[in-house]
Amino acid sequence: LTPDEITRIREDFPILKREVHPGVPLVYLDSAATSQKPASVIEAMNAYYRHSNANIHRGIHVLAEEATAMYEEARLKVAKFIHARSEREVIFTRNTTESINLVAYTWARANLKAGDLIILTEMEHHSNLVPWQMLAAERQIRLEFIPATDDGLLDLEIYRQLLSQNPKLVSFTHVSNVLGTINPAKEIIRLAHAAGAVALVDGAQSAPHFAVDVQDLDADFYAFSGHKMVGPTGIGVLYGKEAILNAMPPFLGGGDMIKKVELRSFSANSLPHKFEAGTSCIAEGIGLGAAVDYLSGVGMGRIAAYEHVLTQYALDRLSKVTGLTVIGPSADRKGGVAAFTLADIHPHDVSQLLDRDGIAVRAGHHCAMPLHQRYNLPATTRASFYLYNTRAEIDHLVQSLERVKKLFA
Ligand code: PMP
Prior knowledge:
single chain; alpha/beta; binds 4'-deoxy-4'-aminopyridoxal-5'-phosphate; PyrdxlP-dep_Trfase_small; cysteine desulfurase activity; pyridoxal phosphate binding; Cys_dSase_SufS
């Protein structure tokens, strides 16, 4: 992406024009938490409410048919975006968290029994830990963890050893939201399958940032959130292989997920509706479709290449701030995330002072407390980058960090 294209992209995101304090423009470096939204996404949701609002899948009137068509078209766009074989493999959920919980409540509870093993990693977000901990406590299931190495990579040697214990499931993050590590997902899945396990990928930090092909990965499940990929909150995706989804019991019971209901029994609807009980997040689904259009319009390959250059630049600049340590691997293995410590200044103080300069970053454990424990850090400050960020914003971050240091010196 050229500087001119970035300028045009920034024009598409209305919020990037605002000031956060009088005379202080916003520098948004918190896209790993949630991304900003282009006008096309906001307008798509607006247009649905203004023009076509109706409940979907049931009504036989113009609005209901329009709304259903818009929502189902969004599903087709998502299916194409991740290269699913069919839109039946795309289940709309609220977010990554709900997608993972869906698998834990249905597939896992139908297939796992006491003593079975699930392999996770030390770099998981809480949403790919807690659902399995809950299951483990309920069913006496064993959890083992692929360790994170000192330089922020997964220890695949230990993974190979764990695989000899016949795991039933390997569930891991594609990209760490703290270290930024891009894990070798295809290889992890290949090894999981060779050991007879099912593989779930937490794609919350990968789907927004580079082209993902679920068939090439051979993922059994792939979960992600709309709000981190320039889409709205309240809409997420669970991709699952059709045969696996068909064999799974439904999740929530209610309207839309049924074919036939009698007083004492029901039969489940076909995919994907079997897993979508109740009125869907219709505007949000339509918004996600517009988000996919937006990202595809720019091109995922170009977004990834630009973020890589930007991350490299950020790591170079940050490495020259004395007392600052970025955790995680070098730029060649890293997505657009830089979590760091700055001398012994508390990350909350760092982020509060950066905010005075208009810079939005995140401070804390980033929903990855075990990972922070692994590196003996109570918290980090995290700057994260997306297609609308610029080198000038990173320069601004670095200057502001130098001021923070002076204040605490
Ligand atoms: N996994 C990872 C790697 C994440 O970064 C996040 C969001 N921080 C999640 C899962 C959870 O996403 P959500 O809150 O949208 O469910």
